[in-house]
Every structure is written in C-alpha cells, then in structure tokens.
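Risk register update: the risk of archive-format incompatibility is retired. Evidence:
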Amino acid sequence: MVFPYAPTPGNDGPAGDTYAVALVRAGDAEPVTAVLRRLRFTGWAGAPESGWLPVIAAGGTVAAGRRGIVEVGAELAGTVLVVRVLRDRQLALVAWSDGEELGRYVSDPSREPGAEDDVLDDPLGVPHAAAFAQVAGRPDRADDLAGLLGDRLDPELVNESERLAAILRLLDLPTWLVAVATLPRDIPTGPRARELTRFGFGLPGVRGKVLDRAARPVRRRRTPPPVIADPPSGGGMDPWLL
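Archived output:
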C-alpha cells in the first residue's frame, strides 16, 4: 500500500513504508462506518480493540473533497488520534476530542509533499505531547512522549516507523499499526486482512471495488492538504509555540 506521492527526496538512505491510520475511541463501529460511507472513504476499518477502532488509509487522498487521513480524522466524532508516516522519513500526529482539535505534530516539515526548499526540518508541535498523551489515556507519560517527539533522527540509523513503534508502546496503543503497509495482505502481529472491512469509495464489496477503481486516477492527481499549512522557513518562529 503506497501513497501516490512522496516527500522531498534526500541522500539519506532508502525510502521506507508509507501508511496512515486514524484511531477512534469507540465501542461501536456503526457511527464510524456511517462517516466513512458519507465521505466515500477508501481503505479499511477494523473492529474495536482495547477501546480503539482503527481506520486505515489506502492512499494519500482517500475520501471526497481531497481528504487525506487527517481530514477524515477531523470528521470522526469523539476521541481521535491520527498517525501518518511518509516513506519512513516523516511522522505526523493529529488529535481531536469531541470535535475540537488539540494539536498537530510533524517530525520534519521539509519532507511534506510540495514543501518549499527553505522550509525548516525541525520538529513542529512537540509542546502538544501532553494533548496526545491525554487522548491516549496516558497523561502520566507526556514528558517521555515529548522526548520522543523532539528527537532529531539520523535517517541512516533510525526511521520514523521505529519512532512510532516506541510511541505506541509508551502510550499502550496497538503496536501492529507500524505494519499496516502490508495490506491487502495480512498484518504481521495484527489482524488478518479478512478481519477488516474493506471500503472502496465508501462501500464494501464488489461495488465498492468498481467505484474505487474508477475514482483512483482522479484521487492520485489530487494530493491532500499539508498537515501544517504554514511551517516556518528560513529561520522563522515556530507558530505552534506562539
């Protein structure tokens, strides 16, 4: 499962996996399913596990209105945490509670698709670690999370999936999320593909596959909005610290 766009290339080792998941605090899948149908979502939805229901993207633009996984997450009610990894070179987190956005984090804004050449590569949104930890139900681990988010990784030695795996362990979230790029094959250490509901253009089954196949060329040409719209460049101040 590869997104139809890539971050700015660099001479720092081979690119890795790209994947994105929205974790929804839910005991009932039906309200989530209703939103995915309305948005004409393409991807997978799992059953609730330890109170979290995973919604897994199958591309960059995965829903109507040029929505990526972040925009889909914003439409889901309740407590939502979105994680997105691009080629193992960028990690993004976004959290909501009852429709209110709590914070956004990007490990390296310069790797956002379409980013300007002078965008800084410093992590943005580290101060929102407390909000992410609160959403995950582990407010006591906010300081440790801030340390993980603030690290500048050497891409020759560590990739963003490794950072994400550490975050998931710290917050007691499903660690198999780092392996969802194997879909439509079974997820190592996670649910089998047949245990997930596959949506195509908001519908399960054959009709959904047909509609998704027809919409795919258009969606591939329309990349989602950046996670952070105006990252600092050329020595500007981090707007998330204001």
